[in-house]
Amino acid sequence: xxxxxxxxxxxxxxxxxxxxxxxxxxxxxxxxxxxxxxxxxxxxxxxxxxxxxxxxxxxxxxxxxxxxxxxxxxxxxxxxxxxxxxxxxxxxxxxxxxxxxxxxxxxxxxxxxxxxxxxxxxxxxxxxxxxxxxxxxxxxxxxxxxxxxxxxxxxxxxxxxxxxxxxxxxxxxxxxxxxxxxxxxxxxxxxxxxxxxxxxxxxxxxxxxxxxxxxxxxxxxxxxxxxxxxxxxxxxxxxxxxxxxxxxxxxxxxxxxxxxxxxxxxxxxxxxxxxxxxxxxxxxxxxxxxxxxxxxxxxxxxxxxxxxxxxxxxxxxxxxxxxxxxxxxxxxxxxxxxxxxxxxxxxxxxxxxxxxxxxxx
Amino acid sequence: xxxxxxxxxxxxxxxxxxxxxxxxxxxxxxxxxxxxxxxxxxxxxxxxxxxxxxxxxxxxxxxxxxxxxxxxxxxxxxxxxxxxxxxxxxxxxxxxxxxxxxxxxxxxxxxxxxxxxxxxxxxxxxxxxxxxxxxxxxxxxxxxxxxxxxxxxxxxxxxxxxxxxxxxxxxxxxxxxxxxxxxxxxxxxxxxxxxxxxxxxxxxxxxxxxxxxxxxxxxxxxxxxxxxxxxxxx
Lengths: 361, 234
Hints:
The complex is a heterodimer. Chain A has a single domain, classed as ABC transporter involved in vitamin B12 uptake, BtuC (Orthogonal Bundle), CATH 1.10.3470. Chain A is globular. Chain A is an all-alpha fold. Chain A has helices at 2-10, 13-24, 28-39, 45-68, 76-91, 100-123, 128-148, 150-153, 169-174, 176-201, 203-213, 215-220, 225-251, 262-275, 280-309, 324-338, 347-354. Chain B has a domain at 2-84 and 153-231: 3-Layer(aba) Sandwich (Rossmann fold), CATH 3.40.50.300. Chain B is an alpha/beta fold. The A-B interface holds A 203, 206-207, 209-210, 213-214, 216-224, 348, 351-352, 355, 357-358, 360-361 and B 48, 50, 69-71, 74-75, 79-82, 84-91, 95, 98-100, 102-103, 131-134, 137, 140, 147-148, 151, 163-165.
């Protein structure tokens, strides 16, 4: 099995397969539409894929903070929530300043990025574990604030309905709003990947590596560690805000604030660890695996499970999504034990984990 | 060029420097010798801004550098090559040199400096694409010096470049330090290897438990009986 896998990899079979699937992404809604018109029943694949794209953006955002800059961040859901809430406030009828989706998609990352700056400026000097604690706390505080600021956020009901984006008439008539969101989310994801790839190769990208390797030596070369870390932190927060704006628009509501809880942040981190910390393709693969499991595999298995035990759908153990934390937990432990660099790591990070730094006399 | 006046520094409650004064003039090699724990590295850390002195003055090219952040000090042309080499082990040799030029905005000058580093240390050119962590100790030290050169220093601070290296390699590195100096870089050299350091230095200071106890030209200090007894093993 392993030998077969290796042979496929060497021959580029896997790469080729992935490229083909990637090229197909823009056409999934079309495919779905075709199936629907032929059989009268759609497979709704595009709806699952939008969620995966949005989660992929979130994974890329966290990767910028944790993977590139080495800042252990456990509160990414807070920035995601800020993006979603900003979109809500700027689009629902309750407020006089309606900017619509296109305005909100620009403001949401700015707000989330500003929150990132405000949180990061005083806390980024903290060492690893302490930063994790502060960000974890920030995430929980943000959730509770959103829950309790009922006058602004509508508390547990969430702000809704968020209007669908304004579209030119011909777009609206041909593909409709839902498929337009699909297309835009895909575009945003591709754009984020391209930009992050450029960042990796830029002067700043090298500075991230140097800082992870040896902060003192980097400072001696004239890098400003505080500023570089803050850039990564605010950039990641802004990207998470963008993901939040897409999430709320796709859902047509800002959702209940408890959605953006600690578990959500941990789930994004799981994507990175399973896919490969610091690796773009790893982050995307992690998002695909986890969200795919959550949205596609788990409902299917739940149906099978319920048929097998005979119908009592209120029984907790009968719902597969209640099992997912056990499964994710087991997956994490196995990953740490067997392949700490992730399933599809960046070459540089794999080295960082496997070779102890060369000992200097 | 660099003037340190009455500088004190401490780590918590422990006083490391008790009011030291020294100066470096343009074009010189000045060495700071002393035993382990005398405060040599702390002196350099204070000068490059990585550790803030408790009191005293530090001026470089007439500017007060005490309140400046390390990355600003590097931009003034005061560049430190830290103790223990501290290359970026998983970046390639070329990438390490590139990091040295991080603050620079003159691509042409950077290009000339790559060539200058490679001509002084041909071995680095041979190993350009190799991760720095796979180099030998001597090669890593050469890379650390080369990387500091890429920052275009006016004053180069070298912390123990001979640490843990074979005598032949030490000789090679000291030769390069002299060449750099002749090409116009001023050098402040911190060393435990007093004999080698004093041989190439124009002037030297002896640091003992946080105080400067002696100063003079390299030749004077080499001939001094107390220096000979304490640092040259004669």
